[in-house]
């Protein structure tokens, strides 16, 4: 869809836009946390050391256990079965098929040898979450760490911009700056909005994002999406809100969207989805305000040859009333 044909006019509730704090770019690999071990030789040729908490032994370790558990091909941590060649070089089971049964280190043919000693050493390890420098305080057994890291609340967020396959990751302050500076996304302060979407030829509907706007209120950031896509054979328009944070925090907020014209209107009210859920996942679940094209053209008025939609809405925070035990809305003034 040609974005040049899109016009967006936005008004907030009159507050000055807050200064958006930038943070260090987190789009890089989190440094490994290395534990030092003294060196001892295993029968399979792999140098493994165990310190046993006794402090320095005076022997310089050949390498750390963490490095030994890193696959030389994909550089990911290895989990059973860990394979090795006749010379003792190791690699993960996934990469064993990728290297056509040849050791990536010495090029010798790989057999079906398991490095049981390294697997046993891994069982005894306890390592911090790889997102420890982002605030995660947890320490896990080696074989539990990977499962935790996939759902760790401190893991970086993916860029929520849906107009391109952006691979940038980072914390929320960094991504807000990234959206503003790199994607030129409109930033607004306030919890009410009034957008007008204009398309000169509404019959040319493609699977593309029309608009993304970021709102700052209640000390949080929200992404307002407005899109056109095919729902089955019928083109539709959809607006929905995503919360820039985790799902548990997103449940503390609610929002409403309204579109109408010619004496009719559609209203949607719901809870914003977390940006942990991809833009496509939210869209495909239809969790938002969906407007059929015929209804959108009816709202636009005129000769039905141009799309002119005005979408208004607001965001509020649900506050728990400790006396009554019920939630009451905290409206933004």
Automatic annotation (TrEMBL):
Keywords: Metal-binding, Transferase, Ubl conjugation pathway, Zinc, Zinc-finger
Gene: SINAT4
A GO CC annotation given for this chain: cytoplasm
One Gene Ontology term from the biological process aspect of the record: ubiquitin-dependent protein catabolic process
CDD domains xrefs: RING-HC_SIAHs, Sina
Catalysed reaction, written as an equation: S-ubiquitinyl-[E2 ubiquitin-conjugating enzyme]-L-cysteine + [acceptor protein]-L-lysine = [E2 ubiquitin-conjugating enzyme]-L-cysteine + N(6)-ubiquitinyl-[acceptor protein]-L-lysine
UniProt record similarity statement: Belongs to the SINA (Seven in absentia) family.
Single annotated GO MF: ubiquitin protein ligase activity
Pfam families membership: Sina_RING, Sina_TRAF, Sina_ZnF
Pathway(s) this gene product operates in, as recorded in its UniProt entry: Protein modification; protein ubiquitination
This protein's record includes keyword Zinc-finger: yes
Positions of the RING-type domain: 71-107
Source organism of this protein record: Turnera subulata
EC number of the protein: 2.3.2.27
Descriptive protein name: RING-type E3 ubiquitin transferase
All copies of domain SIAH-type, residue ranges: 124-184
Coiled coil: none
């Amino acid at each position: 869809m040609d974005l040049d044909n899109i016009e967006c006019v936005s008004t907030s509730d009159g507050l000055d836009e807050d200064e958006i704090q930038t943070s260090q770019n987190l789009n890089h690999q989190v440094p490994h946390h290395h534990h030092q071990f003294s060196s001892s030789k295993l029968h399979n040729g792999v140098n493994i050391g165990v310190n046993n908490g006794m402090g320095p032994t005076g022997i310089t370790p050949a390498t750390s256990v963490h490095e030994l558990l890193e696959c030389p091909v994909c550089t990911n941590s290895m989990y059973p079965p860990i394979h090795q060649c006749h010379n003792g070089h190791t690699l993960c089971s996934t990469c064993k098929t990728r290297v056509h049964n040849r050791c990536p280190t010495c090029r010798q043919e790989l057999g079906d040898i398991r490095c049981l000693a390294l697997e046993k050493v891994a069982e005894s390890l306890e390592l911090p979450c790889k997102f420890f420098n982002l605030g995660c305080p947890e320490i896990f057994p080696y074989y539990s760490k990977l499962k935790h890291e996939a759902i760790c609340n401190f893991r970086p967020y993916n860029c929520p911009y849906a107009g391109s396959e952006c691979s940038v990751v980072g914390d929320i302050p960094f991504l807000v700056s990234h959206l503003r500076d790199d994607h030129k996304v409109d930033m607004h302060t306030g919890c009410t909005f009034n957008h007008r979407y204009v398309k000169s030829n509404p019959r040319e509907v493609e699977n593309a994002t029309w608009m993304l706007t970021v709102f700052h209120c209640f000390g949080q950031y929200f992404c307002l999406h407005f899109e056109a896509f095919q729902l089955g054979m019928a083109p539709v328009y959809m607006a929905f809100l995503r919360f820039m944070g985790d799902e548990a925090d997103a449940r503390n907020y609610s929002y409403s969207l309204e579109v109408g014209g010619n004496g009719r209107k559609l209203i949607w009210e719901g809870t914003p989805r977390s940006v942990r859920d991809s833009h496509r996942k939210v869209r495909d679940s239809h969790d938002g305000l969906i407007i059929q094209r015929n209804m959108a053209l009816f709202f636009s008025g005129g000769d039905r040859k141009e799309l002119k939609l005005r979408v208004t809405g607001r965001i509020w925070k649900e506050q728990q009333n400790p006396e009554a035990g019920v939630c009451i809305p905290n409206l933004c003034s």
